[in-house]
């Protein structure tokens, strides 16, 4: 038997993707002020990124990064446990921990690396990892890397989570997104906290889309739901509302120490560059200040305006009150058509297909931001109304 060809297998996969409208294409994008983005030479109203508070180009972040470059250069030069752990990193960890009311924190190169590190570092093949079915891909990847027994429960179904936990008598960790990245709804953290306390299970909340945006002082989903003081371990990512890059795991000292000792993405990766840590510190100062509160108020006002008007227009939005507003279209090809028609109208939204979402649940992911104005939201609504109306006529 000749060896089956790797090249041929990839060619086959590629043509299957094309047939199913699932090919992904890289596009050259240049962000502009005021939530505008130039994509391949044309300017659009941008509703596809995660810069929820408009901090990515904030003067305070730029100045902090520039100062750190001036004093420390660009690269971190080594891993944290060699000589890569500098004053900006240490201060960022301390400040994030204080902000959240957590005893300790550990900085990773990204949110993705942090999730790989937390799950691989804390879990072994003898353990159980229970997860919401709609959790972010990197939580699943972390569980796979750990070798733990992985059980997933239907989205936000706490009774099912309890059954999964009781299905194996093993040390266990339950991981959930705080705000679900493609749905915009919140995890039932009050019930999950109680469940995990009852079952002596470690609860880990990935708050990539809640941190900075929800709760008092932007402390995130758990703060919004009144359980921040009960969370043993949580993740704040720095590339979304923080407008920088990186991931901070915050929680009880013993968990942080265990992760530091054993997480391979922590041990064997170069530290985050200091200028990014400095920018994240500047972002945190804004997030915890009056300016942060004003930016959150602006974002939430845009969400309310959009959700209220969309309901009147009968748009098929999923029930979300966060910046992430998914418009369910179902079919992959239809989703691509509608996104293209919106682009014709000068509006850029995310067209999300499997495997990012389950098959048959392709959607537009409309991401609102404090940078958007009432006029922007009205223009979006008008375009959605027009495009979906034309589409309905074309189908009839
Ligand atoms: C974006 C995201 C991550 C990954 O964070 P990065 O900092 O972008 O690597 C992790 N979890 C969730 C839920 C996310 O949305």
Summarize the helices and strands and which ones pair or pack.
Layout: H1 6-19, E1 29-32, E2 36-39, E3 42-47, H2 59-72, H3 80-84, H4 87-100, E4 104-108, H5 111-122, E5 128-132, H6 137-146, E6 149-153, H7 158-166, E7 172-177, H8 189-198, E8 202-206, H9 221-224, E9 233-237, E10 247-251, H10 253-262, H11 264-267, H12 274-287, H13 290-313, E11 324-330, H14 332-344, E12 347-352, E13 362-367, H15 374-395
Parallel strand pairs: 3-12, 5-6, 5-7, 7-8, 8-9
Antiparallel strand pairs: 1-2, 2-3, 4-10, 9-10, 11-13, 12-13
Helix pairs in contact: 2-12, 4-12, 5-6, 5-10, 13-15
This protein binds pyridoxal-5'-phosphate (PLP).
Tell me what you see in this structure:
This protein is α/β, with parallel strands linked by helices and 396 residues long. It folds into two domains: 135 residues, Aspartate Aminotransferase, domain 1; 229 residues, 3-Layer(aba) Sandwich (Aspartate Aminotransferase, domain 2), CATH 3.40.640.10. 45% of the residues lie in helices and 17% in strands. A seven-stranded mixed sheet has the order 4-10-9-8-7-5-6, sandwiched between helices. The chain has a six-stranded mixed sheet with strand order 1-2-3-12-13-11. α4 runs parallel beside α12. The longest helix is centred in the last third of the chain and has 24 residues. The structure holds pyridoxal-5'-phosphate (PLP). The site of pyridoxal-5'-phosphate has 14 residues, from α5.
């Amino acid at each position: 038997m000749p060896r089956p060809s790797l090249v041929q297998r990839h060619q086959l996969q590629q043509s299957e993707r094309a047939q199913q409208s699932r090919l992904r294409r890289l596009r050259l994008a240049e962000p502009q002020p005021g939530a505008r983005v130039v994509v391949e030479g044309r300017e659009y109203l941008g509703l596809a990124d995660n810069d929820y508070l408009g901090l990515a180009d904030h003067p305070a972040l730029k100045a902090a990064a520039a100062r750190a470059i001036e004093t420390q250069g660009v690269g971190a030069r080594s891993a944290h446990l060699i000589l890569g752990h500098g004053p900006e990193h240490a201060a960022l960890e301390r400040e994030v921990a204080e902000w959240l009311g957590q005893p300790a924190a550990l900085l990773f190169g990204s949110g993705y690396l942090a999730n790989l590190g937390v799950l691989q570092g804390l879990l072994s093949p003898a353990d159980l990892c229970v997860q919401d079915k709609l959790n972010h891909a990197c939580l699943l990847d972390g569980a796979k890397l750990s070798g733990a027994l992985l059980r997933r429960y239907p989205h936000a179904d706490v009774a099912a989570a309890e059954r999964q936990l009781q299905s194996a008598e093993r040390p266990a960790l339950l991981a959930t997104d705080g705000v679900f990245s493609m749905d915009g709804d919140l995890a039932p953290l009050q019930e999950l906290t109680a469940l995990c306390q009852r079952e002596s299970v470690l609860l880990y909340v990935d708050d990539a889309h809640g941190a900075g945006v929800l709760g008092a002082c932007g402390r995130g989903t758990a703060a919004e739901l009144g359980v921040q003081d009960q969370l043993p371990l949580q993740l704040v990512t720095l590339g979304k509302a923080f407008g920088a890059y990186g991931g901070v795991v915050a929680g009880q000292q013993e968990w942080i120490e265990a992760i530091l000792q054993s997480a391979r993405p922590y041990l064997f990766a170069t530290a985050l560059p200091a200028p990014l840590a400095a920018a994240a510190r500047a972002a945190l100062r804004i997030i915890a200040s009056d300016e942060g509160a004003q930016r959150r108020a602006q974002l939430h006002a845009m969400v309310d305006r959009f959700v209220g008007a969309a309901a009147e227009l009968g748009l098929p939005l999923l029930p979300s009150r966060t910046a992430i507003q998914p418009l369910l279209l179902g079919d992959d090809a239809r989703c691509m058509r509608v996104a293209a028609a919106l682009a014709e109208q000068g509006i850029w939204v995310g067209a999300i297909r499997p495997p990012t979402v389950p098959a048959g649940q392709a959607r537009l992911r409309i991401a609102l931001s404090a940078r958007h104005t009432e006029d922007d939201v009205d223009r979006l609504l008008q375009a959605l109304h027009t495009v979906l109306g034309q589409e309905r006529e074309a189908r009839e």
